[in-house]
Amino acid sequence: MSTIKEYLSADHKRCDELFANMEDAVANSIESAKEAYELFAGETERHFQMEERVMFLEFETKTGMTQGPTAMMRMEHTQMRNLINDMGLAIENKNKDKFFSNSETLMILMQQHNMKEEQMLYTMAQQHLSAESDSIVDMMQSMVVEK
Hints:
- The radius of gyration is 16 Å and the shape is elongated.
- Helix content is 83%, strand content 0%.
- It has helices at 4-28, 34-63, 69-92, 96-129, 133-141.
- Helix 1 (4-28) packs antiparallel against helix 2 and helix 1 (4-28) packs antiparallel against helix 4.
- The chain has one domain: Four Helix Bundle (Hemerythrin (Met), subunit A), CATH 1.20.120.
- The protein is mostly helical.
């Protein structure tokens, strides 16, 4: 079984690939990019919820830190959700310029966000939650996204 850090870092890479596929789809034909967008948006939301509903809560319960790194990551998730939503609206309106303006901002934010999580938060979580690591990964894998 993978550690919390390994599991969530691998999921970052998977979401990054879906992001690249979505950008390629829009570049080729914004009219037919909706499916690639919905896959990226859905899987990214699933990743956010795995963190927010499982890992962040377990970390906060164990450490008592509720206004630390998890609060910052939640705030960044909200920023990314807004950009993803705006990208979906740009696809609906067939506005490539608006889509790529938002996707460029999102890419920069995601890179910085993922680096903070992978280098700091996931390492801290693994240190504090190592005994519960397998069950936490199991909970994240079996999670159903809440709308």
